Structures are given as structure tokens and as C-alpha cells.
Amino acid sequence: CAAGVLASRQVVATGGGDNQIKLWNVAAHKRASDPPSHTSVSQGGAAGPTLIQCLSGHSGDVVSCYFRPNHNILVSGSEDRHVRLWDVEAQECSQTLIGHTAEVCSCTYDRDGSILATGSSDKTVRLWDTRQRNRCFQTLRGHKASVYSVAFRREGFELLGSASQDGSVAVWDPRNWKCVQVLKEHAGEVVGLAWHPNGSLLASGSADMTVHLHQIRASAPEAHEYV
């Protein structure tokens, strides 16, 4: 299962085992005190989000999706090893990115949408330049198992975090894409990452049933800190 949010239009994208991406209008979700609406009724009669689009093209489960900042572009990753870019307005796939050799588990953009990062069960993170027709310009290696989550820090000095089935979290410097830090505090695979809005903390969630909060310095890493 995957989910992404387009805040400007109050649209949520979900992907699943039917190989499809569904777009939902969450603005249609009414509070219990609001007047009844006939446009947003979910099963069971309760008010809920309205399905507005279905996007088809993947040949495997859609396990990740993310909206490009300030664009009507949705990126999705699938069990079929492909990354697809979707024009939400045109309701069509505008590009397919091929490079990963196993399931694409996660995808995210940097703060201005110029770099797309994708994590895969092929143990790598790939970086794609949206200013050059999404050319893959870097492959990050170091994890010993599937990369389940990737997340850019958006405040302070921008960093990329990646979480893996191998139980580790890696932090990468986008100036040279070297690894700055490897965090190994979990006893199980790490399945999710999230940065605090001010960039001071990186949260990691694991199959060991814990969430760890990692203090990350706001300034740029020093040369001697690279792993």
C-alpha cells in the first residue's frame, strides 16, 4: 500500500495490490456536523473521500507514490521494478524510468522537486534529475538489503535519509552523495522514515515495534564525518 498527498488540491493518491493508483478528493470529506452531501458517500453511508481518478499502467503492486512539489506530477514505484511519472491533469503516464532491478519500495522528491530519489529491493537508492528529463545521475550503494524508505530533510542543510531491511538508517550529503552517518539502533528491519518539520530530528520506524528519534545537526557535514 502507498499514499501521497497533493496539498494544493486536497488530493490523496493511494496505490495497492490491484496494480492501480487511485486519486481521492479529500475536500469532499465532511464533518459529522456538516450538511449531508450526495457527492461523497462511502460504503456504509458515512461521508468520506470521493474517488476522482484511476491510473493504470504498472504490472505489479504499487508500493509507493509521491507528488512532486508545486507540480501536478505524481511518481509511483512498483513491484514491477519500474518508476512511473503521471500527469494528473492529463490522467496519463508521461514517462517510465527503468534502472532498478527489483521492486521499487519508496520514492520522494527534494524540497524544490529537482531531484527524485527512489529506494529499491535491489539494495540501492537511485537519484534522477527532473531538469534533465529525469536522467539517473547517481546510484547510492551501501545497504545490505532492500531500501524501504527514502526521505529528504526540507529545513536546514538538506540531507537524504534511507532506511533498510538490513536494520540501518543511512544519511547522505547531496553535495557529493557520500554517506555521512549510519544509524544502527533498531533490532529489526527499518520500514519508515520521517523528518521533523524543523529538521532537527529524524524518526525511524521498525519491525522491532519501536520508533527511534535521531538528533541530526542542522548545519552541513564536515569532510571528516563521511563514513
What is the strand content?
over 45%
The main sheet comes to: 4 strands, antiparallel
Which series of helices and strands comes N to C? EEEEEEEEEEEEEEEEEEE
Q: Helix content range of the residues, please?
A: under 10%
Radius of gyration using CA atoms only? 18 Å
For the secondary structure, the number of strands is 19
Total number of helical segments?
0
| Alpha-beta classification | mainly beta
Overall residue-averaged pLDDT value: 89
Could you give the distance between the termini?
A: 33 Å
Rough outline = globular
Low-confidence stretches: 30-45
Could you give the order of strands across the largest sheet?
Answer: 1-2-3-4
Question: Care to describe what's here?
Answer:
Helices cover 0% and strands 48% of the residues. With 227 residues, the protein is mainly β. The strands form five sheets. It has a four-stranded antiparallel beta sheet, with no helix packed on it. The protein has a four-stranded antiparallel beta sheet with strand order 5-6-7-8, with no helix packed on it. Strands 9-10-11-12 form a four-stranded antiparallel beta sheet, with no helix packed on it. A hairpin with a 5-residue loop joins strand 11 and strand 12.
